[in-house]
Specification:
mainly alpha
Length: 138
């Protein structure tokens, strides 16, 4: 499942940056296939986290994941650029990953009914009346 569409990406990211990262500066044309490739990759990253807590595929793409998907895709698109150029994207990427980590810890929720939570560990069990020390004399 993709958590954000190319249209979502184009609506969220400034046009000049989109052209710089996935377009032709001379013609101002945007390569939407390249953007989609990064969104698919970002969605896979999200699934790696979400799948530990929720059954995949999710019934719908939660709004809470759309912006994080865009942030992860944008960071991945920019990561080969000079370090100073991606400071904001890196911070947004780290925020997105932090959100996903909080999600699998149960600190935040997607508000979906089908959580894939592991059963609680019951710990050791004791049976009343049984003893391995029975019949021993001291």
């Amino acid at each position: 499942m993709m958590y954000a569409t190319v249209e979502d990406f184009l609506a969220s990211v400034p046009n000049h940056l989109v052209i710089e990262l996935a377009g032709n500066m001379e013609t101002q044309e945007i390569n939407e296939n390249e953007i989609e490739t990064y969104l698919v990759d970002a969605s896979s990253t999200i699934d790696g986290y979400v799948g530990s807590r929720y059954d995949l595929p999710l019934p719908t793409a939660p709004a809470a994941l759309k912006g994080r998907c865009i942030d992860i895709a944008l960071y991945n698109m920019q990561r080969l650029r000079a370090t100073g150029d991606i400071e904001d994207s890196r911070e947004r990427y780290l925020d997105a990953i932090s959100f996903l980590k909080d999600l699998i810890k149960g600190i935040v929720s997607l508000g979906l009914p089908q959580e894939n939570t592991p059963p609680p560990n019951p710990g050791p069990r004791f049976r009343p009346g049984s003893s391995i020390m029975k019949g021993l004399s001291y």
